[in-house]
Design a protein that fits this description.
Order of helices and strands: HHEEEHEEEEHHEEE
Number of helices: 5
Number of strands: 10
Radius of gyration: 30 Å
Amino acid sequence: MVAKINMNNQGQIFIFVVVAIVLVIGVLIIFLLRGPLEMRLTDESNPNAFIESCTREAVEEAVELLQEGGGDINPVGFFQFEDRPITYLCYNANYYESCITQRPLLIEHMQQEITDYITPKISDCFFNLESDLRRRYTVESGTLAIETILQPETIVVSIQKNLELSRENEVRTFEKFSMVANHPLYNLGEISMTIANQEAKYCDFDELGYMILYPQYDITKFVTGDATIVYQVTERNSDESFRFAVRSCALPEGY
């Protein structure tokens, strides 16, 4: 009796193995007949999703550089601090004299800095998108126009580019793409300009008084050996910060 049970078990195992091998061979045959899988960059019904993701990555890079460099991606007229160049938002090389604001339109300047930085990267994104879509569509595209707008707690990038996809009797047309990110760069820039303007007018800024009125922000300043002050403005909730340099009413050594 025991011998019969063992023989039955062995027979069942043999059948299961054969069935499994047949299934594996069948799946392989199906994949071979279908050919290689087609890799797609995006959902062709919504290319904005791909462009939005690509734009967001480029904007994040630009914003980080602006925050660390005092509003310039490639600072000009800067102070070297902790091995990084930081733009002077208010500067005077002379002693005893108040500084002169260097970026009176800081928000507008940063908008243009972001646009200039992300434009070639977004152009590459469209090139990759169109290359992928051309395997399935006839693609016609127009010129690229980009605008960056900084608003309170928000960064908006608007992209204009005509993109037409056609095959057989199907035509898809796209004209506008966009990216919206929650970020306090506008707020940090406005506070930084308030500090720079007060340094230009009074040769000082009362950061403690400001933080009492606006406790959601932290403001620290580092006084260096050549009378340059490096300010850092931080939004407490997000921990996002912005730093810049000021040299105003400097005193000679010994005073």
